[in-house]
Amino acid sequence: MKKHFFWGSFILSAIINYSNAQSLTLKDCIARAKENNTAIELAKQSVETRKEQLEGSKKNILPKVDLLAGYNYLGKPLEVNLQQTKDGIIEGSALQSANAATTIYEQITGDPLNQNIRDLIYQSSRNIISAVYPNYNPALSKQDYFLAGVMLRQPIYLGGKLKAVQELKKQELHSSEINLENAQDLLVYNLSLQYLQVLYFNSMIEKEEQKVEALQKNEKYAANLLKSEIIPPYQKKWADVALIQGKTSLENLKLERENALLTLKQMMGMALDSNLEIDGKISEDYATTTELQKLQAGQNTDIRLLNAKKEEANTALKVAKSMNYPNIFAIGNAQFFRKDLPVITPPWMVGIEMQWTIFNGFENQNKIKAAQSLVKEANLLIQQKQEAVALALQLAQNKIKAFQNQSETLDAARKETYTTTEMVRKRMENSLSSVKDVNDALQLQYSSEKLFYTSLVAYQTALATYYYLNGQPENITTLIN
To answer: H helices then E strands: how many in the chain?
Structure first.
């Protein structure tokens, strides 16, 4: 049983390692990068944030209900200020007593009351009231009390503020979605260029390995010639030095390829110590100009993002203007705990409340002017970006044609070096050329290969740039395997 388990684990591990070591295409790399790249994750999270903000703005029309409760302790109990009204109360009470006595006397006797008696009654009443009137302010309650209740506030009219804010949040969500597309397009573009670098190093490593193999054969051939005393020792040294240089160049290319793979892993969100295999070579096809003629111009995501930001600025202008209009609310208040209140108030109330800022130091006017300036700024940025994209597109098209012509010429030149190298080798075998001549021919052949593949990378980079500027960066995957 243990034996079967061991072999099962071994086979499973082998399958996993094989799948992990499987060579990835550019499409595979792009798919992984869109799922794991940190910049993409950040842009996606921004979209989620804007969605929640939009949902929150839709709920601003709902009433606001607050539970209000509080405990208050006063420095001294609330008092009724009787001293402030003392003179008025005494005077009023004395006059009331004199008028009452006059009225009663007239009703009994039918004659008016003598003024002296009236004055006597007035003064006596005044003296009596002054004597009994409190000379202190009586307290109405304790020094501490507790209140609790529910306060409701329902917006009825806010001058278009709620609608403008909701529209602004909706536009911010749209901008974040375009920003996600922009981040994905930029990632695809940069990843394509890095993938091209890996393919370039794969091709150059293959050519360098072929060169080293030829140099090894040449070194062995030179050793045999030296042993037969056909060539002097220094010619054998030339072959040794050329072989060492070839091996060093090969190791350097492998290290550069490793660095390119590390950068690619980082773009794909992979651990730097994980296994990544890319076995493809740089495409030698430089006759894809017809693809450009069929391609319809796409929308550049940078321009689309700026257009979205412009709409945000227009909406922000509406929000700033809405601040000049009044706010109307329906309000309600119900108090269910009113312990020891100094003044008896109703348990509940409802009403309508208006709030209208008449003057705030011209703050709203400045906000409106700033929003208007932001709209103009957005228009200028859009115009600037459109001009830059149009120029970059034209430059990319010209570079594509130039590198296509250059690649065609270099392709023909490198193929000629094959013939030259073979001729020099045969001449050396017939003692008509030296070992150094063969080494020089091999070096020339490799240099021609390097120029050709460098031109191919530049050509395909120009193609990738053209597709990216058109808002279709993934079209390059049809040309890069």
So the answer is: 11, 4
**Beta carbons of 172 and 166 less than 8 angstroms apart:** no
Residue 454, judged by CB atoms within 10 A of its CB (0-12, 13-18, 19+), counts as middle
Read off the tokens for 218.
Answer: 């040449």
Q: Give this prediction's pTM.
A: 0.75
Find out whether 420 and 444 touch, Cβ atoms under 8 Å.
yes
pLDDT range class, residue 12, cuts 50, 70, 90: very low
Q: Are residues 316 and 371 in contact, defined by beta-carbon separation less than 8 angstroms?
A: yes
Other beta carbons less than 10 A from residue 51's beta carbon:
15
Kindly report, residue by residue over 118-127, the tens digit of the pLDDT.
778 788 888 8
Residues 6+ apart with CB under 8 A from 185: 301, 468, 471, 473
Confidence of residue 1 (pLDDT cuts 50, 70, 90): very low
Q: What is the pLDDT of residues 385-394, one digit of tens each?
A: 888 988 988 8
d(CA 431, CA 429): 5
Q: Which residues contact 102 (CB under 8 A, 6 or more apart)?
A: 112, 113, 118
Helices (H), 323-434: 363-429
